[in-house]
């Protein structure tokens, strides 16, 4: 029986001690701890890595603190367009959705695409039609409304500006969520979900639902979920690049992550981070930004929760 492990993230960016009150820090720490332990509980009961990452991400989607599901940011039109993806490291099967509206838990839809369709990526109206056929839960517009998200949108809706999850000025902008896990059978899986950028236009899609960029899993190497400025992560094919360094150059998980996040991305201005896990239960959570909301739990070890740089 393999050692179980799970890691989650809730976004990366300018997150410093000065930007969070003690109360805010306590709230976010509790939310991360709850989500990672929910996923780990699935693993300890013999559940699959796929089930564990879905459970952890669902918890984060249901929490308005993070930019996914219920906490998704507003588009230029004042709507919510969400992306999500899931990948199975055992079979290399994957499912993803982009630009979906009114779906309560986009990660559930991503899994349905993977398991109940012949496709990998569905978008917009078609993805929503598929969700109806699968009997997935929809939510009214009011469900996704959050006062802080609305106020940040009001500040930029009349401009061409788009806002990333975290800036020094707006510490309430929290981000893309994700989870990676390895189960008792030694299979890994990854899942990512996001509401994208505040004030985004033209049905912009980021790296989260792009297999190989924001999400990837392969039992031979690792499972990866990314968070940060999506355009850079797509151009660098970040998630797959970590896997490739392990498979073709023999790098360790930590070496591969450091090469991609701390060197490759930094060279051309890509800010953010990722979480990754191997079939052996090794975890890496590198980031080149001021902070990254993250948590992990390995076997019967204590739960780890981090926000700032060490």
UniProtKB/TrEMBL annotation:
- The positions flagged as active site in the entry are 176 (nucleophile)
SUPFAM superfamilies reported in the protein's UniProt record: N-terminal nucleophile aminohydrolases (Ntn hydrolases)
Q: Which CDD domains match?
A: Asparaginase_2
Q: Which terms are listed as keywords in the entry?
A: Autocatalytic cleavage, Hydrolase, Protease
Name its species.
Pontibacter mangrovi
Matches recorded under Pfam families: Asparaginase_2
Q: Has UniProt tagged this entry with the keyword Hydrolase?
A: yes
- Plastid: present as a keyword of the record? no
Protein's name in the database: Isoaspartyl peptidase
InterPro entries in the record: Ntn_hydrolases_N, Peptidase_T2
- Kindly list the biological process annotations in GO that this record carries: proteolysis
Q: Which GO terms describe its molecular function?
A: hydrolase activity, acting on carbon-nitrogen (but not peptide) bonds, in linear amides; peptidase activity
Annotated binding of substrate, by residue: 204-207, 227-230
Where is the signal peptide, in residue numbers? Answer: none
Record site: Cleavage: 175-176
The lineage's top-level taxon is Bacteria
